[in-house]
Design brief:
Layout lengths: L1 H15 L3 H8 L3 H8 L7 H10 L16
Helix pairs in contact: 1-4, 2-3
């Protein structure tokens, strides 16, 4: 789940066409943290990624469902 969210964040950052520094400012991250995110380092919690995504206008939806049990 975190890997997918990281991918979406990076795609959105590329769409915005801003520098890593500017993207970091928007996401509440330092340029160094954006660089680590871009490098694929798995150092961010899911909550931190959700906050970063919100900063660049990405909406994150998580749906938890019970497994289907046939009758």
């Amino acid at each position: 789940l975190r890997a997918l969210l990281r991918e979406r964040i990076l795609d959105r950052g590329a769409d915005l066409g801003v520098s890593q520094k500017r993207a970091g400012e928007m996401m509440g991250l330092t340029q160094q943290q954006v660089s680590r995110l871009t490098a694929g380092e798995d150092v961010f919690s899911f909550d931190r990624l959700v906050d970063a995504a919100a900063g660049i206008d990405l909406e994150v939806r998580v749906k938890a469902v019970r497994p289907w049990r046939g009758v």
